[in-house]
């Protein structure tokens, strides 16, 4: 067994970005996120949770007590986070199909929250950094599918807890992950 503490990573800082579906994500680590990508700003100190799961269906046979085959039936990938900045991009992500209008010039705005919002698919980007190690995850097609309670109190920040679910797109991948982590180098 080989143990190497240099391969242990921490996400010291990062960003969640949203864009309209079809917006091109970066294909390298040096290029800035292009036009259309909006950084949601500060996240809670819990950071971002990324989950990837698969479900299988067992196929049994009369002649066997254990499955003779397993068939992949679903793949699920989600990102969970709590946005701490209450701004147009986070509020309209939390409340799909909502609109913000100016009531009084530069001082009062109104958020109209629809009773029956429609689908609100977006491209999602996640970037995180550990020293010189940079990672980027791009989900070309996703939707915010779960929202936590908005807690209002004097001892903590108001947060918008959201879960993003990745959807299959035209490509065979559900997402792609870029990294300059030397631990990823393929063994010769």
Structure description:
With 188 residues, the protein is mainly beta. Helix content is 4%, strand content 48%. It has 1 helix and 10 strands. The strands form 2 sheets. Strands 1, 2, 3, 4, 7, 8, 9 and 10 form an 8-stranded antiparallel beta sheet that branches. A two-stranded antiparallel sheet has the order 5-6. A hairpin with a 2-residue loop joins strand 3 and strand 4. The longest helix has 7 residues. The protein is globular and about 75 Å long. The two termini are 18 Å apart. The mean pLDDT is 94.
Shape: globular
The number of distinct β-strands equals 10
Largest β sheet strand count, sense and barrel closure? 8 strands, antiparallel
Helix content estimate = under 10%
Structural class: mainly beta
Oligomer: single chain
Provide mean pLDDT, rounded. Answer: 94
Please, how many helices?
1
Helix-strand string: EEEEHEEEEEE
Uncertain runs: none
Distance between the termini: 18 Å
- Cα Rg: 20 Å
Proportion of residues in β-strands:
over 45%
List its traits.
10 strands, eight-stranded antiparallel beta sheet, 188 residues, two-stranded antiparallel sheet, 4% helix, mainly beta
In short:
This protein has 188 residues and is mainly beta.
Topology:
Elements: E1 13-20, E2 38-39, E3 49-61, E4 64-83, H1 88-94, E5 99-104, E6 108-112, E7 121-130, E8 133-147, E9 160-166, E10 176-179
Antiparallel strand pairs: 1-2, 1-7, 3-4, 4-9, 5-6, 7-8, 8-9, 8-10
